[in-house]
Amino acid sequence: MQKIMDLLRKIRPIDAIIIVGVFLALIVGFFTFTNFRQTADKQIEATSKIRFQVYIRSVTLTGSEIPLNKGEKTFISIRNVPYSDLDIVDVKADRKKIVLPTFNSKKVVVVEDVSQADSYDIVVTLEDTAKITKDGAVVGGNKIKMGLPITLEGEDYKFTGIVSNLQIVPIPDNHDVINNQSTAYDVQ
Questions:
Q1: Closest to 66 in 3D by CA, of 110, 14, 119
Q2: For the purposes of burial, counting CB atoms within 10 Å of the CB of 178, is it exposed (0-12), middle (13-18) or buried (19 or more)?
Q3: pTM for the full predicted model
Q4: Which of 36, 44, 37, 141 is nearest to 84 (CA)?
Q5: Burial 146-171 (b: 16+ CB within 10 A, else e)
Q6: Among 29-33, 44-48, 75-79, 83-87, which stretch is predicted with the lowest mean pLDDT?
Q7: Is 15 in a helix, a strand, or coil?
Q8: pLDDT by residue (tens digit) across 107-146?
Q9: Using CA atoms, how far apart are residues 80 and 91, in angstroms rounded to an integer?
Q10: Contacts of 131 (CB under 8 A, 6+ apart)
Q11: What backbone torsions phi and psi does residue 166 show, to the nearest 5 degrees?
Q12: Quick one: pLDDT at residue 56?
């Protein structure tokens, strides 16, 4: 018993911390090896193609056309961290609109806002391969969820928007199209 006490007195505090750390690492390794604890790579359920839409609000364009085009690639940054070039699946641009009341108080009319003639709202649909986890799709180490800020950058543009839609299965090509004509709506 005396020999054990002499040995314990010779151990410095740093040595004790190292011994406890190695012991804890062995315990965690044992539980990971026996599948009691899941590691990050075991949480991935599948790898799948995803399509997500980025909503870019109030872009001022004085040129004759929108610089984002279907079928091209755009470089994206997620949370200001550069990621990769992604395919542009679809682009929808719509001029700013305003709602005007009519003389009949039960109807309103939506028309283009002439005071903001060069201001557009753009929805860009992008496609990528993602790792699907219990928490959602993961692209470039980031969870892609609605509200995530994303920057799209090309040869002559750099726009910042937010993810407004995410689908793991491909989006059908006949989804709703925003038309540029005035529309009357009933007010209840």
A1: 119
A2: exposed
A3: 0.63
A4: 141
A5: eebebbbebeeeebebebbebeeeeb
A6: 44-48
A7: helix
A8: 888 888 888 888 889 999 998 888 888 888 888 788 888 9
A9: 22
A10: 44, 46, 47, 137, 138, 139
A11: -145, 130
A12: 92
What's the half-sphere exposure (Cβ side, CA atoms, 13 Å) at 181? Answer: 4
* Closest residue by Cα to residue 75 from 132, 150, 154, 147: 154
Q: Which residues contact 171 (CB under 8 A, 6 or more apart)?
A: 51, 89, 90, 125
Q: Residue 167's closest CA among 141, 142, 134, 136?
A: 136
- Residue 6 corresponds to which tokens in the numbers above? 């002499």
CA 25 to chain centre: 35
Phi, psi angles (nearest 5°) of residue 168: -80, -35
Torsion of CA 87, 140, 50, 78, to 10 degrees: -70
Q: Residue 90: which of 5, 8, 1, 172 has the closest Cα?
A: 172
DSSP symbols for 99-142: EEE-SSTTEEEEEE-GGGTTEEEEEEEEEEEEEEETTEEEETTE
